[in-house]
TrEMBL record:
Designated name of the protein: ABC transporter substrate-binding protein
Leader sequence segment: 1-29
Keyword Signal: yes
Species lineage: Bacteria, Pseudomonadati, Pseudomonadota, Betaproteobacteria, Burkholderiales
UniProt keywords, alphabetically: Signal
Length: 352
């Protein structure tokens, strides 16, 4: 009669269960994905509204870092081992990086593009959220007759006062052309020479060419300028300060930030899934409540969640506010060295 021992099988079973438990632990822990943006409160809010919920949905651990723009992404890619898996950039930076081959392709089998405008995505980048450039003004200066259009901003006789514009061709040249009578549907391709001629006319009345959001807010809050082209998000703290300031979304520029995966990133597959989740309506719908004066790039976010009238009034891409604004084409600035040419011509004008 043969003898059957369960000891060897028990040992095998024990090892098997231990390995399964280890695998389960690894699955629960997930991979660690690194997101890099421009830092500050803006990045904290982007992570809260978009990146963290997407990472949690994919069971990914999240690490966040900051960068100084496309140049630093380029350095990371050139190293062959970029430390970042997902980066947020400006629209013109995504377009430029794409032409330079700095990004991995996205997987559009994972991304449902319903509700996302065609101009807000490329083969290797996609818009994450909207921001606006709006016309803001001092109410103690203009009382009940404020400027309402960029043509008003250029009309120094009807609306005397000190002005401020951004020292950046993207945004500033669009504004100059709208002020000169170009209709939104004819804005692109931008006529940079016409924009410079328009800026020549307003230059004597521009007291400051701002270079940071903080500076633009300070100029308006402290009354150093009477009207200004300013990022909508920078209006919020000025209004909260009690300064006599207001703004209009009319003819505002509706622009977007975007997400991309640096070429050679360690976790490309996970990054593609995270980006696909970020642009879903359910996660995009976090933006209006977490980030006033920004807005979802996916219009369906407004269909799946009910927002208060106050939240909708501040969300720049809510139906009522989006209808008043002019979409920017960030991709155009990334083509044919348009951004470099624009920078050179704008700085040459200012230095005259």
């Amino acid at each position: 009669m043969s003898t059957f021992s369960i000891a060897p099988r028990a040992r095998v079973l024990s090892v098997t269960l231990a390995l399964c438990g280890f695998a389960a632990t690894q699955a629960i822990a997930g991979e660690t994905i690194t997101f890099a943006g421009y830092g500050g409160d803006y990045q904290k809010n982007i992570v809260k509204a978009l990146i963290k919920p997407a990472a949690e949905k994919e069971n990914l651990d999240l690490r966040t870092e900051s960068h100084d723009g496309l140049a630093t992404v380029r350095v990371q890619v050139a190293s062959g081992k970029p430390a970042w898996d997902v980066v947020q950039l400006g629209a013109e930076e995504c377009a430029t990086g794409s032409t330079q081959g700095l990004f991995e392709k996205l997987d559009y089998k994972l991304i449902n593009t319903d509700g996302i405008p065609a101009e807000a995505k490329g083969s290797d980048w996609i818009a994450s959220n909207y921001y606006s450039v709006v016309l803001a003004y001092r109410t103690d200066k203009y009382k009940d007759n404020p400027p309402k259009t960029w043509a008003d901003f250029w009309d120094v006789k009807k609306f005397p006062g000190k002005r401020s514009l951004a020292l950046a061709p993207q945004e500033t040249m669009e504004i100059a052309l709208l002020a000169d009578g170009v209709t939104p549907d004819k804005l692109y391709p931008l006529d940079q020479k016409r924009a410079i001629k328009s800026l020549e006319r307003i230059k004597p009345n521009v007291s400051a060419w701002w270079t940071s959001g903080a500076q633009s807010a300070q100029l308006l809050r402290d009354g150093e300028v009477d009207m200004e082209a300013i990022w909508g998000s920078r209006i919020a703290p000025v209004l909260q300060s009690g300064a006599p300031v207001n703004f209009t979304f009319n003819q505002g520029l509706l622009a977007y930030a975007c997400l991309a995966i640096p070429k050679g990133a360690k976790h490309v597959a996970e990054a593609r899934k995270l980006i696909a989740d970020v642009v879903t309506p359910s996660i995009q719908a976090n933006i209006p409540e977490v980030m006033p004066f920004y807005g979802p790039v996916n219009s369906k976010a407004f269909d799946i969640r009910k927002f208060s009238p106050d939240v909708l009034a501040k969300a720049n891409s809510s139906p009522q506010n989006r209808a008043q604004q002019v979409p920017m084409n960030g991709a155009w600035w990334g083509m044919d060295q348009n951004l470099q040419k624009g920078n050179e011509s704008l700085r040459a004008l200012i230095n005259q």
